[in-house]
Amino acid sequence: MNKLYIGNVSEEATEKDFESVFESRKIPYTAPFLVKSGFAFVDCPDEKAAMKAITELSDKVDLLGKVLRVEYSVPKHQRSCKLQIRNIPPHMQWEALDSMLAEYGTVESCEQVNTDTETAVVNVRYSTRDQARLALEKLNCAMTENCSLKVSYIPDENAPEGPRRRSFNSRGPPRTGSPSMGPRPRGHADMPLRMSVPMQFVGAIIGKEGGTIRNITKQTHSKIDIHRKENAGAAEKPITIHSTPEGCTSACQIIMDIMRKEAVDTKFNEDVPLKILVHNNFVGRLIGKEGRNLKKIEQDTGTQISISSYQDLTMCNPERVVTIMGSIENVIKAQEEIMKKVLESHDSDRAAMSSTMIPGLNLNSLGLFPSGPQCGGPSMPSMPLGAHGGHSSYGAHPESECVNLFIPAQAVGTMIGRQGAHIKQLSHFAGASIKIAPAEEKESQLRNMIIVGPPEAQFKAQCRIFSKLKEENFFGPKEEVKLEAQIKVPSFAAGRVIGKGGKTVTELQNLSCAEVVVPRDQTPDENDEVVVKITGHFFACQLAQRKIQEILAQVRRQQQQVKPPPSPQGHMPRRK
């Protein structure tokens, strides 16, 4: 995916002109340029160089009176379902991006590309060629928050084979990460190693003209991104290593050797620990019950390990810093054990998600199972929740739901956080309105968290709440977190949830493994609604909630079908 097409080229442009443009901006390329009438091609050594050329040159550089257009060179047979979208506003939230992309079809994957630009870049795969073509036509040059989106095809390795032609610069075996290597393997290969390194060592890691970092990538068969422009002015910078677990470990060891040697040469007086960035979703399982997992790693490797506070997390940084002190040999052993635990959690979560198959959710939009730097994606405030209507799941906007989730009363302070920081952060992360209702009785053992938002927001908010209760030890080491959730349904639909002779609710309990109860003899509230109680672990609760919402949707559709047609005088066209 590192061959570039350069369009809008002047008839007078020569190979030397392009060499000058690339070299003046320090963009690596593999000579020669192939200059044709009105366009040109060039190979870049890696994806990072290709992205640098696209972001710095396309629609920005005037060559002999014409503004160049630079994008990936994609053979016709590979112009299928895969697009790259560039110049995405830096504050755009994943949910907003997913919503925008979903207007043109089903999005199978949406992955962020690491770049040094302030705006974000993502690679998107649609389920069909027509959907991808429509998205390209509608989104290219579309204005979003004063940013003009740039959309182009990228090679789709899964597209049907077309006639193959030898590249003008094809030599030797395919490069690591090039399209000819096929799609990246799933599983562990999706989970890079993220490190945090002091800014004063970044130059030594990169080396003169990038020589050191190139040698590391070559030796370890890895792709390494040093995010120098992230967190301007910060004392430390993140590094992302993409490789096999063995390749990540080898690259990490070389980088640690370089840093400690540089510390000696520059008379840096402090110890240089290894700092790994781990997504907060995995930290609880890394620590283990009563800290047993972490203690065992420390004992087995002869290291000291600490983890940054949950309070240090921000919306743009859901990663915790795992600091490992010890000799390089021992530190690397600890890194291997830590990443094994993280990878196990990562794969377990993906397997659980796949096996549960919760209906009604856009799982790709959840962002719960990171495959790279997590904040890296676009991030922008969610759609105002007032647009969803009231707290009734039936009377509100069809995609907005209200769930009352009951948590231990002693956990309220933890959920709110210092000056409300945690509950605000949780609300922004999930894209939901989250409030804690006042206690109904002074000695009440449970408190009601009111969560209002669409299905994906409910999933994300409830997942974080279940995880937080476990991490903060509100449930015992061998105790599974089980909570009661309550949703309101129209009183006339309660019978549909129960089913004839209780058949539906029994099937629902067997399917979800949650306890589902529609209390008898309820008096409907002022909105003519009654409560359905759902108790169980996280996935059980989610599956039961989604199934009940499916039943309510069926009731709505049937009601609309039996409504009498409006009189001709009062006829109004229905809004779509």
Automatic annotation (TrEMBL):
Keyword presence, Cell cycle = no
> Which Pfam families does its entry note?
KH_1, RRM_1
Q: Which GO terms describe its biological process?
A: mRNA transport; regulation of translation
Q: Which UniProt keywords apply?
A: mRNA transport, Repeat, RNA-binding, Translation regulation, Transport
Q: What is this protein called?
A: RRM domain-containing protein
UniProt lists the family membership as follows:
Belongs to the RRM IMP/VICKZ family.
Q: Which residues form the RRM domain?
A: 2-75, 81-156
This protein's source sits in the domain of life called: Eukaryota
Q: GO molecular function, one example?
A: RNA binding
Record's SMART domains?
KH (SM00322), RRM (SM00360)
Q: Which SUPFAM superfamilies match?
A: Eukaryotic type KH-domain (KH-domain type I) (SSF54791), RNA-binding domain, RBD (SSF54928)
Where do the record's region annotations for Disordered lie? 154-190, 556-576
In terms of InterPro entries, this protein maps to: KH_dom, KH_dom_type_1, KH_dom_type_1_sf, Nucleotide-bd_a/b_plait_sf, RBD_domain_sf, RRM_dom
